[in-house]
Amino acid sequence: MIKMVAFDFDGTIGDTMEMCVSVFKQILTPYLDHPATYEEIAGTFGLNEKGMLKLLVGDNWQKAYNELVVLYKQNLQYCSTPFTGIPELIEELKSKNILTALITGKGKETCDMTLAEYGMTRSFCAVETGRDDRTDKDSAMKRLMETYHLLPGEFMYIGDTVYDAEAAHKAGTVCLSAAYGGVVDTAALEKVNPGKVFTTVEAMRKYIEEKVFKSFLFICRGNAARSQFAEALMRSYGYTNIYSAGIHVSENHQNICLRDDGEKALRAVASFKRMTGIDISNNKRKLLCEEDAVKADTIISFLSQTELPSFMEKYADKITIWDVPDPKEMDETGYTAVINEIKDRITKVTQKSDIHYTIEKPAPEDAEQMLEYLKQVGSESDNLSFGSEGLPFSAAEERDFIKSSQNSKTQIWFVAKDNGKIIGDCNIDALPRRFSHRGELGIAVIHDYCNKGVGSALIKKALDAAKNILHLEIITLEVKSDNYAAIHVYEKFGFEKFGTFKKFFKKGNDYSDADYMNLYFS
């Protein structure tokens, strides 16, 4: 699990690289016998400004540095804001309790100056600036990991140069390459950091949302084979928030190969290494506890629901069962079949989670499809106020309703579409008169798209509009008290429970309670 994300500055947080190079060219040229070139300047990247100038102008470095600071401050007005989306990404990381830090080659003076200009002085828990005697980013990463007691797998760096990626790899951690700035060699970045190069901030944010924020839990009987295989394969796809556990594990959390049938376990792990190149022989087994289920967005179990501990009943909406046999008593052929089955399923999970959907306001021509969508979500869930019958509207009535919503000053309504198909919707309706500072939220997503971030994206879009367009102050919702998956999502957005309505729902002769939850914008 990623616990800290550290950022480079120039070209990563702000589009300052061209300005910095321009300032250096103006300062350097009078000290050289030729116009300063980009190649000369780039050859000193990684050092702070003092170190760069010491290499380029020798004993005149102090005078040149004083001139550079003045010119830098004058030119900062031309790139006085960070890249669009970066401050929001940093705040989103912090909202997930992920520490944010800054590791830059810039010197302290220009770094502080730029952070103040961007209004980001308090954005980072730690700031590591450059040195004048050597490049130091990999050491800076290691210092932060040591200071905050982090393993390399719990740390991530975001930078825009080949050097940034190489420094991260040297520190044993992952790097995301920012290729959305002005001076970037995208091909060179892809060569050293394949699959982790992003040409827009939004693309990088989506990668982080999917592979860092989203958590998976794999469960099997002993946490010695199937769940460990699945966890390792998910990590090989770049996912970081992945766990595995077993329902029968001794308290000393033995190495996965050290059990009563250790030889068989060892052979299964050896088969896994042969087939995937991944060595998990030193992994530890872990006993499943309720905390694991609480923090997971998606739970995949190799056991049936009846085999799981009773506390897992509360998390049934998160659980998908994979009917893959235990390789415990199998031979090499059996191991191979089990591993291939898990590989195929993991591939499908990663492909499905990479869906490309849009969020937009519904249009009148969506009326017929909307009615069919409502029937589908009603048939798939017991958490809505209606079932497979949908809502009692004709296509003409639905068209009129959609038209009225488009220019409404009291309603926010968005739908999510995958290739034109409605897969989810979220609405917030403002209340009348003396309740007009409040709104009520409703949301639904069809089953095949649950646990893929669609619901969260819809809620975020609707909440932003409710706050900034309708200017609401409080959002209220009602959720079945046993719909733990939904409650978990609402709590991540800041909703708080303030009461319970006994016997709120009635289906047949069965009653269900509902929790009331509020989100306060101010």
Question: How is this structure best summarized?
Answer:
This protein starts with a strand and ends with a strand.
Keywords:
seven-stranded mixed beta sheet, globular, alpha/beta, 17 strands, about 525 residues, six-stranded parallel beta sheet, 18 helices
Average pLDDT: 90
Number of helices: 18
The tally of beta strands, per DSSP, is 17
Q: Which of globular, elongated, flat, extended, rod-shaped describes the shape?
A: globular
Rg result: 27 Å
Give the end-to-end Cα distance, rounded to a whole number of Å. Answer: 31 Å
Estimate what percentage of residues fall within beta strands. Answer: 15-25%
The largest β sheet comes out as:
7 strands, mixed
Share in helix: 25-40%
Oligomer: single chain
Low-confidence stretches: none
Strand order of the largest sheet: 11-12-13-14-15-17-16
Structural class: alpha/beta
Describe the secondary structure blueprint for this structure.
Blueprint: E1 4-7, H1 17-28, H2 38-42, H3 49-57, H4 61-75, H5 86-95, E2 99-103, H6 108-118, E3 126-128, H7 137-147, E4 155-159, H8 162-170, E5 174-178, H9 186-192, E6 197-198, H10 201-213, E7 216-220, H11 226-236, E8 242-246, H12 262-276, H13 290-295, E9 298-301, E10 319-321, H14 332-352, E11 358-360, H15 367-380, H16 395-406, E12 411-418, E13 421-430, E14 438-445, H17 454-468, E15 474-480, H18 484-492, E16 496-507, E17 510-520
Parallel strand pairs: 1-2, 1-4, 2-3, 4-5, 5-6, 7-8, 7-9, 9-10, 14-15
Antiparallel strand pairs: 11-12, 12-13, 13-14, 15-17, 16-17
